[in-house]
Every structure is written in C-alpha cells, then in structure tokens.
Specification:
Oligomer: single chain
CATH topology of the domain at 3-25 and 54-100: Mth169, Chain: A
Order of helices and strands: HEHEHEH
Strand content: 25-35%
Shape: elongated
Distance between the termini: 14 Å
Strand order of the largest sheet: 2-1-3
Helix content: 25-40%
CATH class of the domain at 3-25 and 54-100: Alpha Beta
CATH superfamily of the domain at 3-25 and 54-100: Phosphoribosylformylglycinamidine synthase subunit PurS
Number of helices: 4
C-alpha cells in the first residue's frame, strides 16, 4: 500500500514528535553534554540541545486528520509552548512500516 493510498483510504499512521528547548532558553542538559565532550576527546561539536522524542500511532480517516490530532497533542500536551518548540514527523502508514520489517 502506498502512502498516497493510505492517506486516501484512512488507516493508522505512525508519527514522531521531536520536542526541544526554544532558542534562547537555557538548556542545562545540553550544556552538560557539551561540557563532557572534551573528556571523550571529541572536538568541533557545539550548540548541543537536548530534547525528547515521542512516537505514536494515530488511526484516522486520512493522513491530514491524523497529523491534525498529533499537532494538537504536541501543542497542548507534549510541549510547553512557552519554552519548547516541537516538530512533527510522519514515519509512515503502519501497514508500510510493518511491510518494511
């Protein structure tokens, strides 16, 4: 099943939501990672930001409906809009992902 067919006929869609601190927001975890790089003899890595990734499956009539649900969850539940930014990534239709295994 192609992703176009999945989007037309509905189904289950797998998404990832990547949540990171907004630019200008203090990121103590990122700073700690960056401070540790020298101890590992790793050089040339800067501007480390540490966030989180949430993966979920949404059953909906179309990919657009599923994405709207994920966008709502990301903005109202998964990310704090005052200090965090988020990006939604479509991983694929569930049938496609299972076929790829």
């Amino acid at each position: 099943m192609s992703s176009g067919a999945a989007a037309t006929n509905g189904g289950a869609f797998r998404f990832a939501v990547n949540v990171t601190p907004k630019p200008g927001i203090l990121d103590p975890q990122g700073r700690a990672v960056e401070a540790s790089l020298g101890h590992l003899d790793v050089h040339g890595v800067t501007d480390v930001r540490v966030g989180r990734r949430v993966e979920l499956t949404v059953t909906a009539g179309s990919e657009a409906e599923a994405r709207a649900t994920v966008d709502r969850l990301a903005s109202e539940l998964l990310a704090n809009p005052l200090i965090e930014a988020y990006a939604v990534e479509l991983l694929g239709a569930v049938a496609q992902l299972e076929a790829a295994r």
